[in-house]
Amino acid sequence: MTLPLFNATPLQALPVKKARPYQDRTLTQLRALVAQGKRRILVVAPTGAGKAFVIASIIKAATLPVLSVAHRKEIIDHIVKQMAQQGISNVGVIRGNDDRWNPSASVQVGSVATLARRDRPFLGQPIILIIDEAHRANSSSYVSLLQEYPDAIVLGFTATPVRLDGRPLGGDQLFEELLIMARYEELLRNPDWLVAPDCFSGRERADLSRVHVAGADFDETELGQVMHSDRLEGDIVQHWLNRAHLHPVFKNGIRVPKQFTEGGRRRTVLFAVNIAHSQSLAARFARAGVRVAHLDGNTPEHERDAMFRGLETGELEMICNCQVAVEGVDVPAIKCVIHACPTMSITKHRQSVGRSMRPWTGIVPLYLDHAGNFDRLGCPFEDLAWSLTERPKRFGSRPPMKMCKACFAYVEPQKTLCPFCGAEFTREEKRAPQESPEILHERNTEPEAMKWAFFWRQVVMAKSKGFKPGFAAAIFREHYGNWPPKHWSEKIKNDFNGDQLWQDTLARRLERKAVREARERQEQAAMGEKSPEEIALEETRETWAIGMETRENRLLEKQLEGTAAAIESVEGEWSEEPIEERAENEDLPPEEPPAAESPFADWLESEDIR
Ligand SMILES: [Zn+2]
């Protein structure tokens, strides 16, 4: 039995999309893992990486019955659509009174809530069980579903492989293997795949010091009281009016500070704390002449669909909501996300900002964070080291993004000029730690002995690499936000001076550095002319008449001479160390998958996978 909807000619005639290289790679890696006997695999794919396409490809190639489960209508519709595009029409949908109900189909796409109330398909058979938005897989409805299919191959998909309370997703009941489909670094390199938003903090900050934590996140009632204020809401409206119509100008691929063209205002989704907060903000925007709608869990399905269609066509400019428009919304026209809702959930943060990152008509997305989420949870498109057994960590020692004090933009740590307003970062700002105040505070309450142990590890590292004594103090400051006690630095200075081994290492390193610099000078002279990047940088410096060293800067420079030199000399060495690459290789399966022994081994063997 097939469904007439998917046999209709226009859908059959749709061109079959070709898999992107990382999607192909993921399918190959999945095959290898299943051949190795892995049964519960969690695939991590940033929002917008095209996981629905990969899920549809798996279903197309599967030789076992498939049950694909999600918790929202939007996700179910999206997967059914992707399958139709790949020519899979024999599909049943198990959700409420959905008219695509088709119990005889070998592929079933279901809502987890409906499945809990009905007879489940394929019981007692080996199947492939796909769980979308699998960061919810520890909830009771999913756990009982997993128990009903003890022999299933379970494939979970998520952008953030952590539970909503931040804990990892490994363990007996859940996943045993983590597979990274793609990292942001790879996806952002191709503007046809993902586009990073420009990120700005609000001017006004909410004081959350009296807001309690309830469960895994801030207490919603208290949060609503704090965030629902004239000062904060007014700032949000003004910020959007100031920025939503400005589109950055690039010259030779480099953004020219402060240069913008004016154009249509970005289609926007605003995330508020609760219904009253969302309605209040929607009313403010409406008074400012913005075409805006409010959406919440009580909005009927057809109205909600109409709102997103309106946003797509431009009839609407903004939808205000509270956590309704997060998962499964696939409207690439959304080019601005406003956060008015502080959260402690890395999943909520990344899911919502990810809505704006799909490419659409070359518009650079915008993220206006009026909730302190960027500071609290980090850059929403920074790759993290995910794990099934530990909380996610940042990679290596890469410094986080910093905020421009003039325009509140979040800026790459190595930038010396703000690409948004042209302000120059002071030497202090260039090197000051950019960790959130909470993290710095937490570190600073560590006992003295732990701080000394950290400091001493840097001393040992400095000695072994031939770095100067100031290195340890500089790293300490990066980590804790302030300098170590003076007598510590004095103490290790003598220690360094008496160390012949260190002096030899230092001499050799300086020699290597001199040779490298001489070679670079030669190469530059041979090239004869400046790179487009250098020309652009010089032009922008002239434009903003920056580059003059102030007296304060010179004084500060002198003061920091020792540590700055140490940092500078180690930066060169560090950049040669491929931290990310190494971590990525760890995720790759062995080149030759071991011989297939399990009854499931051939479920994904079909060559016809794209
Ligand atoms: Zn700026």
Number of strands: 21
Q: Provide the gyration radius in Å.
A: 27 Å
CATH class of the largest domain: Alpha Beta
Spatial strand order of the main sheet: 3-4-2-5-6-1-7
Percent of residues in β-strands: 5-15%
Which structural category fits the helices and strands? alpha/beta
Helix content: 40-55%
CATH topology of the largest domain: Rossmann fold
Individual helix count: 24
The CATH superfamily of the largest domain bears the name P-loop containing nucleotide triphosphate hydrolases
Domain unit count = 3
Which consecutive residue ranges, at least 5 long each, have pLDDT under 50?
A: 1-15, 539-564, 566-610
List ligands, each type once: zinc ion
Largest sheet: 7 strands, parallel
What is the annotated CATH architecture of the largest domain? 3-Layer(aba) Sandwich
Termini distance? 24 Å
**Bulk shape:** globular
**Can you give the mean pLDDT?**
80
Topology:
Elements (H helix, E strand, L loop, with lengths): L3 H4 L1 H4 L8 H15 L4 E5 L6 H11 L4 E5 L2 H13 L5 E4 L12 E5 H6 L10 E5 L7 H9 L4 E6 L18 E4 L3 H5 L9 E4 L11 E2 L2 E2 L1 H8 L2 H14 L2 E6 L2 E9 L4 E5 L3 H13 L4 E4 L5 H13 L4 E4 L12 E6 L6 H9 L11 E4 L3 H5 L6 E2 L7 E2 L7 E2 L6 E2 L15 H5 L5 H8 L3 H18 L4 H11 L5 H12 L2 H28 L4 H12 L7 H9 L1 H15 L3 H9 L23
Parallel strand pairs: 1-6, 1-7, 2-4, 2-5, 3-4, 5-6, 8-17, 13-15, 13-16, 14-15, 16-17
Antiparallel strand pairs: 9-10, 11-12, 18-19, 20-21
Helix pairs in contact: 3-4, 4-5, 17-18, 18-23
Zinc ion (ZN) binds next to loops.
